[in-house]
Give the backbone structure.
Amino acid sequence: MRKRSFIAKDDIWFALACSLLLAFVLFGSFFSGEQPGAIDYGEYDAVIASAGLTRTQWDLEHPEERYYIKPVEQFDYLPFSYSKLITHPAAPSVVYPIALIRLVTEPFGLGFSTLYLFILYSVILIVSAYHILRYCFIKVRF
């Protein structure tokens, strides 16, 4: 006789409730005031160049702000070949989500923002947490 597995409805609601709580914490903390981020001390130039990004004109004109005072959140796009994602597997892993965001924002004339990256990573985290919590509690019935 084969074993059948099923997921209890309570487990689905538990996973959904935890995922909604995670979403509330993530988005609530991000939009509640001071923006979290890393101050760029000139260490990110190689990564942003490999991702097809460049500094905005304001950042280039105010390097003292960029390096010591505020997190860099806005970038402009450089010419970029999507075939680079397949042919250069040694590229930093952040290149892939940036390329996905670029597919959505560039046709509308928008630049890159770390806010878009935060939203993408948050959605991935929330969906992953939901599926992990939902399928952690599979019951086995004979």
